[in-house]
Amino acid sequence: MRQLWIVWTLGILTLQECFTGTEYNGVIILEITPQNEKEVQCLQNILQSWLLDIWKPLQPENINVKATVRVRIPSTALQLVKEDLLHCSQSLEILIDNVKHIAGNKTETKETRSKKSITEYNYTTYHPMNEIYDWMNEIAKNHSDLVTQHLLGLTYESRPMQYLKISQPSVRHKKIVWIDCGIHAREWIAPAFCQWFVKEIVQNYQNDQRIRKILQSLDIYVLPVLNIDGYIYSWTKERLWRKNRSQYGNGTCYGVDLNRNFNVSWCTHRSSTNCSSNSFCGSSPVSEPETRAVVEFVESRQSDIVCFLTIHSYSQLILTPNGYSAGLSRNYNESLKVAQMAASAMEKTHGTKYRAGPFSKLLYEASGTSQDWVHDLGIDFSFTLELRDNGSHKFTLPEDQIQPTCEETMAGVMTIIKYVNDKYFPNKAPSTVFDCSINILIFNTVLQFSVLFS
Ligand SMILES: *[C@@H]1O[C@H](CO)[C@@H](O)[C@H](O)[C@H]1NC(C)=O
Ligand SMILES: *[C@@H]1O[C@H](CO)[C@@H](O)[C@H](O)[C@H]1NC(C)=O
Ligand SMILES: *[C@@H]1O[C@H](CO)[C@@H](O)[C@H](O)[C@H]1NC(C)=O
Ligand SMILES: *[C@@H]1O[C@H](CO)[C@@H](O)[C@H](O)[C@H]1NC(C)=O
Ligand SMILES: *[C@@H]1O[C@H](CO)[C@@H](O)[C@H](O)[C@H]1NC(C)=O
Ligand SMILES: *[C@@H]1O[C@H](CO)[C@@H](O)[C@H](O)[C@H]1NC(C)=O
Ligand SMILES: *[C@@H]1O[C@H](CO)[C@@H](O)[C@H](O)[C@H]1NC(C)=O
Ligand SMILES: *[C@@H]1O[C@H](CO)[C@@H](O)[C@H](O)[C@H]1NC(C)=O
Asked: pTM of the entire structure?
């Protein structure tokens, strides 16, 4: 009876989360490291039956001996869950006891912004991180049919890296498009674009045939701010900060250029081993927690990811791989064609010129970029987008350019996604309305029969 009650209570909690979107108010993350196969199985059983949000690895099947498992648990369920998990393994630790507290550590300028949640979110202004966290909560809550929020990892300063998954419910096995923004702190237009992108999708997907068609086969994962610590630092201390905030040299210098920290020709081209440098590549490949979080995700979904976009500023470029050699990348001709199509769609929007070409030719040589690491894994469509401007304002793009920049970038990004969708899912025309009505038909029939025969 007690068992039943526990399961029932947790069921309600899970459902509640479902309906209200994910809130990190009093949420706890537990870390458990199973020591043997028996503990692994025990954990798998418990986590599966409770439908808890497993943060690492992404699927219970991938839990392994001696590999740390992280699970997010509503604080109200802590006692019950903890008790049962302790039956599995003694190696249980409470990693963060209140994510909201850490996420919202209000060191940021909040001043005149306290009224915001009543008014509409303003997409044509730059937002500090605490507002972006709130925005993520709200957009997931407001559009729970389409958008869910998930944890990717923790930053160096223990802030949760959250991403939004845009996914239309479907029985199909879908492929993934990844978009990250803000790997470099000072490039504020990038997070602004990620937010704009999500807004556009949720506002238009019901009426826009192109978006509907894409979402039939593709889920889109958006990480609005990758380098959260650095972003906050750029708001509070140093507007032009680029890197993360890890400490090196006995605290004499800070920060790794996260886009030099991936494991691809690491630290060989235009990267520095001097931790004061803006292109410091880190102490080893994937030394940084932010990089590691992205790598773990991409590796775990490697066979599903069909397109990887990383958004930067400035220079107005659509870059194909690679940065670490003058050689052309695997599917260069096709990548270039797609990049050119995107650049042309972007130019059509407001007349802004974007150039398309290989990273090392159009920008500079650079090794250890996420784009190249992902491409080397076998993901063909991997692009870096450098948004406005062309050098007049550089990283401090005026707010009155947020809207036109986002509009043209939207056109470019949708061009790329459409190309990828058409390539991987040619001639898939059936509309979801059709799928849906079939489902409803079956459901009704079953319902009628069950009523008849009950
Ligand atoms: C958040 O604020 C608390 C209290 O001011 C402080 O103890 C803690 O170190 C801060 N955490 C971070 C990650 O800044
Ligand atoms: C969520 O919905 C509320 C109520 O309609 C609205 O005021 C708010 O602006 C929405 N938030 C976002 C981020 O769309
Ligand atoms: C949004 O922010 C921009 C830039 O600060 C401002 O010009 C605009 O009036 C704001 N829009 C609304 C609706 O508040
Ligand atoms: C860091 O400080 C310790 C103790 O002050 C010293 O022994 C060590 O050599 C220093 N390391 C570096 C890299 O400066
Ligand atoms: C980096 O890649 C090399 C070669 O593929 C591999 O041997 C090494 O283990 C990788 N390092 C990390 C930290 O992933
Ligand atoms: C590291 O870079 C800083 C800043 O550019 C410079 O002042 C310093 O001399 C460099 N240190 C070494 C050992 O090159
Ligand atoms: C790529 O395009 C160039 C020039 O159009 C052509 O010479 C080359 O054969 C193409 N490469 C591949 C692999 O199709
Ligand atoms: C940048 O763009 C502006 C407006 O399109 C143009 O007037 C200016 O000449 C461009 N500057 C450079 C360096 O290309």
From this structure: 0.73
